[in-house]
Write a structure and sequence with these properties.
Chain A has helices at residues 27-46, 96-107, 133-138; strands spanning 2-11, 50-55, 62-64, 73-75, 84-93, 122-125. The two termini of chain A are 26 Å apart. Chain A is an alpha+beta fold and 140 residues long. The longest helix of chain B is centred in the N-terminal third of the chain and has 23 residues, at 50-72. In chain B, strand 1 and strand 2 (179-180) form a beta hairpin. Chain B has a two-stranded antiparallel sheet. In chain B, helix 7 crosses helix 8, helix 11 (199-212) runs antiparallel to helix 13 (238-252) and helix 14 packs antiparallel against helix 15. Classes of the chains: A alpha+beta (140), B mainly alpha (383). The interface between A and B is large, with 28 and 54 residues.
Chain lengths: 140, 383
């Protein structure tokens, strides 16, 4: 019972094996890819492991506080930003091994030529629930 | 209407349906429907015999569903409407339900979800909220769990240890959403202790009560973690402590020690001390030795190193720690604490920061970061 975030990157991940940009796929290959993603999410609902999934637009804005009474400063987007998140899926699974197994399946989504993309996905654990008293003891 | 009282009737009602020949999955659905109906109807029109009412309504719901299914399969065999006389129960029905919901063929998360619904009487929505997953996901988790155990015979004896592990998992999940899972775990363990005479069930119940007693003192107003030594002991629930200690003493007197009794004994020694300084660390080390013998767990030996540090001084604690794998969760946090006690504040500050980076949850991360910051700002002032 641990939650994991599967992060998909537009940029910043190591190169995939089948590394062809989506606009160079055939329309049928794009449809097959989308269908694979939907089926994957549906299957996780069936197994009781699905929490959430969202896709993000590539262009974002940087925002920061600029002092009392002033509107926030905005900037960007910056083309040089190395790490660009494309979307995520949150899963709730019994073990780290299961999380790795599911990330592997998601990475096998078909791309150009109908072949698996072998895309690198980033797997990040959520912090667990707050500790019990017994645990506090060991943390000093 | 007392919802907890209503939910406490759940396992008994479910057991009656199963004994009458209903299959477990269908019976469980029918009981859920009856609980929902009770919540709707009872406030205005409370029944004289609550359990009898639930059995009647649940059985009717079961028959309605069975008829609907039968109508869909017109050419198939008709289902008998009269209750079949089930086999006489060899073990208490409620206990059988606990065994079924914690069956070893289930994954821990499935066993937890099924136990909370079929034994605890919580709705799927409540369980989903408590575990922060969508209701559809939790509904699937529960129905898969029911399918997994559908072939298990209801009168098979089970293993109490698997049930205790499930209840312990629920207890440790604490409090999130609108259901207090720790309180629910206490309730379910109490109910289990009422139907089975086993020293480890008592041990777990005592352990839960002793930990639950400290809950109000454990969290700062800002949500931060307050370690045992710094807790305001006046805020501990003395009624729960007294109950936990009494249950533990009765269990220990039977001379069948197990890990939950040993853990409860350690919790009881903490509860016994009017101040942190008066804690009987020598006895606590002895209990950790017992616990290490019973479980062989490296986590236990890590906690033992903390206790040794208190009983025999930080150098002894560090020596005990040196025997353990540095990859153990919280090893760095323990090392930081023992170095601080030993007066090596620079090392302690560095290790606290490192431990914060590896913390398994937010509360511990923030606590350890504050420990590092406290030591760092102290040495800054000296410079």
């Amino acid at each position: 019972m641990a939650k994991y975030l599967l992060l998909k990157h537009y940029r910043g991940a190591p190169a995939a094996v089948n590394d062809v940009p989506m606009e160079q796929w055939t329309p049928e290959e794009i449809s097959a890819h989308m269908q694979y993603m939907r089926d994957f999410a549906d299957r996780l609902v069936q197994t009781g492991e699905y929490v959430d999934g969202q896709a993000l637009a590539p262009e974002g804005t940087w925002v920061r506080y600029d002092g009392e009474g002033r509107p926030p400063v905005t900037d960007g987007p910056f083309a040089e930003t190395k790490d660009l998140i494309a979307g995520w899926m949150v899963i709730d699974v019994d073990s780290h091994e299961r999380a790795v197994e599911l990330a592997g399946e998601l990475s096998a989504a078909p791309g150009a030529g109908g072949k698996p993309i072998h895309e690198w996905l980033e797997l990040r654990p959520f912090y667990a629930a707050s500790p019990t008293d017994a645990d506090c003891h060991a943390s000093g | 209407m007392d919802e907890a009282l209503l939910r406490s009737l759940t396992p008994g009602v479910l057991a009656v349906l199963v004994r009458r020949g209903a299959d477990f999955a269908a019976a469980e659905d029918a009981v859920q429907d009856a609980l929902v109906e009770a919540l709707r109807v009872w406030p205005a029109d409370p029944p004289r015999d609550a359990k009898g009412w639930l059995v009647t309504v649940a059985w009717r719901k079961f028959l309605d569903q069975t008829r609907a299914d039968t109508a869909r399969r017109r050419r198939e065999d008709r289902v008998e409407e009269e209750p079949a006389a089930g086999p006489a129960p060899a073990v208490d029905d409620t206990l059988q339900l606990y065994f079924l919901c914690a069956h070893p063929s289930l994954t821990p998360s499935s066993a937890v979800a099924l136990t909370l619904r079929a034994v605890g009487g919580l709705t799927t929505r409540q369980i989903a909220r408590a575990y922060l997953v969508p209701e559809a996901t939790m509904a699937q988790r529960i129905s898969r769990a029911k399918r997994t155990v559908s072939g298990v015979r209801f009168d098979q004896p089970g293993d109490v240890a698997t049930v205790l592990r499930v209840l312990y998992l629920v207890f440790n999940e604490g409090y999130s959403g609108d259901v207090d899972l720790a309180a629910e775990a206490v309730r379910l363990t109490r109910q289990l202790a009422a139907v089975v005479d086993h020293p480890e069930v008592s041990g777990l119940l005592a352990l839960m009560l002793l930990h639950h007693a400290r809950r109000a003192a454990r969290t700062a107003p800002d949500g931060g973690l307050i370690p045992l030594a710094e807790q305001d002991r006046g805020r501990w629930d003395t009624r729960l402590i007294a109950e936990g200690v009494a249950i533990l003493q009765a269990a220990l007197a039977r001379d069948r020690l197990g890990e939950f009794q040993a853990q409860a004994a350690i919790a009881a020694l903490h509860a016994d001390a009017p101040t942190a300084e008066e804690t009987d660390w020598v006895q606590i080390v002895e209990w950790y030795d017992e616990l290490a013998r019973l479980t062989g767990s490296p986590v236990v030996r890590l906690n033992r190193a903390v206790a040794v540090g208190e009983a025999d001084g930080p150098r002894a604690g560090l020596a005990a720690l040196a025997e353990l794998d540095t990859d153990l969760p919280r090893h760095t946090a323990v090392a930081a604490y023992l170095h601080e006690r030993d007066g090596d504040l620079a090392t302690a500050a560095r290790l606290y920061a490192e431990a914060a980076h590896k913390a398994p949850n937010l509360a511990e991360r923030d606590h350890l970061t504050r420990q590092a910051a406290r030591l760092n700002s102290r040495s800054d002032r000296r410079n």
